[in-house]
Write a structure and sequence with these properties.
- The chain is an all-alpha fold.
- The longest helix is centred in the middle third of the chain and has 59 residues.
């Protein structure tokens, strides 16, 4: 009986050592593309439009920035001119006082002549 078990075990081991496995032929599948030509075209078209619009937005923002800079410079020039005008108007008021004009007339040798004065009536 022990012999029978031994033969059975060895035959079992021999079967495990040299198994005969039938190899399957790999099936040839037709290659399927991930993206079709139309999808690729749409992707390229979308990317082109995206780049175009992005460039347009950047260009517009740059123009807005330049215009704002010009507005600020013009505002600065306007405020400087206003300040100069105020200073000049104050200077005109100082130099157009009656006493100063009378003094300057005497320096230049002008004398008032009442016979030469003409009165113009307002309307």
């Amino acid at each position: 009986m022990a012999l029978e078990q031994r033969e059975f075990q060895t035959s079992y081991i021999r079967e495990l050592e040299t198994p005969v496995v039938p190899r399957k032929q790999p099936q040839v599948r037709p290659s399927r593309k991930v993206f079709s030509v139309g999808e690729k075209f749409l992707f390229v078209l979308f990317a082109t439009i995206l780049v175009l619009f992005s460039t347009m937005i950047l260009h517009t923002q740059a123009q807005i920035n330049d215009t704002n800079r010009e507005v600020q410079l013009l505002g600065k020039d306007v405020s400087e001119t206003t300040k100069q005008n105020m200073e000049l108007s104050i200077l005109v008021k100082e130099k157009s006082t009656y006493d100063r004009i009378w003094k300057k007339a005497k320096e230049l040798g002008l004398n008032p002549n009442e016979n030469n004065v003409k009165v113009v009536s307002g309307q």
